[in-house]
Request: fold
Amino acid sequence: MVFGLGINNARPVLKDVKVRQAILAALDRKQVADTVFPTGTKPATSVLAHTTPDYADLSTDLAFDAAKAKSLLDEAGWKAGGDGMIRAKGGKKLSLAISWFPNAATNQPALELVQQQLKAVGIDVTLKQGQVSQFATTLQGGDYDLVWGNVTRADPDILRSSFSSKLANFYRLPASSLDTVLSGQAATTDTAKRKQLVADAQKLIVQNAYNVPVVELQTQLAVTNKVHDLAFDSGSRIQLHDTWIG
Reply:
């Protein structure tokens, strides 16, 4: 799964699909990738990276469209505030917090740019830094609005692990047709059927904005010809068990 914003779909503000879709439309992924990340980093075009089996290109659904984001927030009842920027409804400002953890140098600058992009459509965002060791407990406890992160796996079944309401359900999704699709792709032995089901799952996640994909993870390594037996696991993590220099 690409780097992005995991949404706590049980939060009152974020239960509204229009608000989630507005967040999705407000982000200029290419600007984030080009400004913050190493050359060659790709903006997200799905919740899965393009190298993952059964990836589906949803770049149209993830197109940057600030006007659409503003329109969706208008429809959801969040009107431009008196300060001309931050929106409000029923006397309450549209304020959200993004929880993040300092496990990569790109996290803070990426989120500061995301913060600016969301402010431009009227969403006030606070960046809430935690300790790396708190990441799992934050997801498990559900004490967050949005959380920045990614998951590296070699199989698209990571979608079921992450988004099925029948499993850990860290993102507090309601039971829906997505559960059926995710269970179906895990159960079938028909590769063509699985490909279609995985594509359907990606579409449901993106179109309902259960998650906000931003950029694909990229790792760049440089080694001399003296390094031998450097290996990677199926999730692209570096393996140094048998590595030697000579």
The two ends are 36 Å apart (CA to CA).
